[in-house]
Amino acid sequence: MRRIFSAISAFALLGASAAHGAVTSIKDSGFAIENSVEIAADAQSVYALLAAPDRWWSSAHTYSGVAGNLTLEPRAGGCFCERLPGPGGSSGSVEHARVIFAAPHKQLRLSGALGPLQAEGVMGTLDITITPTKKGVRVTVGYVAGGYVRMGMAPIAPMVDKVLGEQLAQLKRVAEVRKP
């Protein structure tokens, strides 16, 4: 967890995000963020890519340090999980979130405390919507988290916003790669 928090902090200090995002609300008890990006790809391809976080999620924002250990089952009850390889072939795992709503090619909603929030008394809802546009789709990622965070919600909300913005920008880059 310390590695993830350090990565989140480092990224927040850079202040860079290709996606349009913002902390839309912050209170002592929680926060809401929203990021969106236009992707020159069809909804079916983008939805399929969402189900393959090993292809677009940043390794810097994983517990194992390897995005290839991530999986996501896009169905109610499905897990956004990560394998944690250990010594001698042993293996652990972490559940980042659980799918609570899946509408193929339109919307994916997950419930879970992401990153360093997992060690706090927090619950979060990650809502990903795909809306057709003239040039492809607009993907909007909203995250609402509430509960108790020892360091307070105000310092963590912008960090989470930046990290999710980075993931959305990477989703765009991967989705727009043209195959020969």
Model description:
With 180 residues, this protein is of the alpha+beta class. The N terminus is likely disordered. It is globular. A hairpin with a 3-residue loop joins strand 5 and strand 6. It has one domain: START domain (Alpha-D-Glucose-1,6-Bisphosphate, Chain A, domain 4, 2-Layer Sandwich). It contains four helices and eight strands. It has an eight-stranded antiparallel sheet, covered by helices on one side. The longest helix is centred in the last third of the chain and has 23 residues.
CATH superfamily: START domain
Report the radius of gyration as a whole number of Å. Answer: 16 Å
Distance, first to last CA: 40 Å
Structural class call reads: alpha+beta
What would you say the CATH architecture is?
2-Layer Sandwich
- What is the average per-residue confidence, as pLDDT, rounded to a whole number? 90
Organism: Sphingobium tyrosinilyticum
Protein name: SRPBCC domain-containing protein
Keywords: Signal
InterPro entries: Polyketide_cyclase/dehydratase, START-like_dom_sf
